[in-house]
Amino acid sequence: MEQSTRTLPLRLIPTKGGQIIKIVLGLAFIGVAGIVLQWMDPRQIITASGNFTTLFIAVMTILPFFVIPLAVIGGSALKLLPGSPCYYLQIGPDALVHRQGFRIRRFAWSELSRFAVYVDKQTTHSRGGSESTSKYYYVVAVRPQDEEFLQDSSQRNTYAIFKISADEYGGGDGAEDANALADWLTEIRQQALTNRGRVLAVLGIPPEFRDTASAPGAAASSVVPGGPSSVIER
User: Fold this and answer.
1) 149 touches 141 (CB < 8 A)
2) Is 65 helix (H, G, I), strand (E, B) or coil?
3) Is the pLDDT of residue 11 over 80?
4) Model confidence pLDDT, tens digit, residues 146-185
5) 28: phi then psi, degrees, rounded to nearest 5
6) Phi then psi for 32, rounded to 5 degrees?
7) What are the residue ranges of helices labelled H in 144-220?
8) Residue 9, preceding bond cis, omega within 30 degrees?
9) Contact (CB, 8 A) for 234 and 93
């Protein structure tokens, strides 16, 4: 299998295609909300109610249909910036750094257990009585002393101190991305804890993340599969 190797720190940034889809869907949603708002003639509402209260309630009801997609569009646009400086998962020799907008969380490897996959199943019911289940895959870790809780699906989510959607950074489906990232981070964590103060082994990037992995501040395209091998130094 062709390998892609890089030195730590290594940064995973959100996939571009997924953000473009969110922007398109957000714009379409705003367009539909705009059409609905045009049907709400303010004069007819005021005439029917006799005051501005009903108009205010109607506007406040439709307003979230603009605000929410605008927030999604804004977040996706930031993720499309070169290097994604506001949204990323940075894998370092000493710690993981997860940034989401203004929120930055740092986890030392010694503060985390091994990594596991949590599957969030959400069931929706239609008016006809049928139901459908959607699955969302996350990579989670608990405190080292709580690692026993990883054996239970619900408890691994309850006690998780680290939780991310791997599909946002990976090129496979949700299950593939989550399992690949969980195994990869577990391997890196083990090497980091075992080889403290010494040179670590060469790091192979899973195929699912080769298109979104780069050195901090570099473009993801700088990751070239089959590139020269390197070692990770602390």
Assistant:
1) no
2) helix
3) yes
4) 999 999 988 999 999 999 998 889 988 899 999 999 999 9
5) -65, -40
6) -65, -40
7) 153-158, 174-194
8) yes
9) yes
